[in-house]
Design brief:
By secondary structure, this protein is mainly α. The protein has helices at about 10-20, 25-30, 35-45, 60-65, 70-80, 95-100, 120-130, 140-150, 155-165, 165-175, 180; strands at about 55, 85, 90. It has eleven helices and three strands; from the N terminus they run αααβααββαααααα. A three-stranded antiparallel β-sheet has the order 1-3-2. It is elongated, with a radius of gyration of 23 Å. GO terms for molecular function: DNA binding.
């Protein structure tokens, strides 16, 4: 093996940096090739950046929660804190939990496929009991009722509660893509 030997100090630094940074950054800070850092981490059993963090990528979060990436982007605009770790957009678990607790109207607990992050919280267990577990299509009667309630001055939240739908579902049905493709 033709590379430089790793000193004990470098191994300690490798472990510390691996907890905080992606592979390319660790390699640059250690003045080593990405391949050398990757192989040394593999041989020593040091986990990568994703394994040593309390953060989730947007894609991982969307899969766990059963929502689209664009929904999570919308949540960012509503206050969900994100961290840019190129090329990823990441979310701290504590920020996700805080957002989910403060905005229960934005998500359906029944669609969460991995609840290990939330199961310890009573508010999640209660929401899980109350949320509808199946996704169902809007009937024409429901669409008419929703539009009538809106014309009568009800808020999106009030309509969602009356119709047992999420606020995002109401908004999407009122203002979403059906206007652009002619469907209802």
């Amino acid at each position: 093996m033709g590379g430089r030997a790793w000193s004990q100090e470098e191994l300690i630094r490798l472990e510390e940096l691996t907890e905080k940074y992606p592979l390319a950054t660790v390699a640059r800070k250690l003045n080593r090739s990405e391949n050398a850092v990757f192989l040394k981490r593999q041989r020593t059993g040091i986990g990568g950046f994703m394994a040593n963090t309390d953060m989730l990528t947007r894609n991982t979060l969307s899969r766990i929660l059963g929502v689209e990436n664009r929904t999570i982007q919308y949540w960012e605009r509503k206050g969900l804190k994100s961290v840019r770790k190129k090329p990823y957009v990441m979310y701290r678990q504590q920020d996700i939990i805080r957002y989910m607790k403060e905005h229960p109207e934005d998500w359906n607990a029944a669609r969460v496929i991995d609840d290990t992050l939330f199961m310890q919280y009573p508010w999640f267990k209660e929401k899980r009991k109350n949320d509808i577990s199946h996704k169902y299509n809007w009937t024409q009667t429901e669409v008419s009722q929703m539009k009538m309630l809106r014309k009568q001055g009800f808020t999106i939240r009030e309509i969602a509660e009356k119709m047992n739908r999420s606020e995002s579902s109401i908004k999407y049905k009122l203002y979403g893509r059906e206007k652009s493709n002619g469907r209802s």
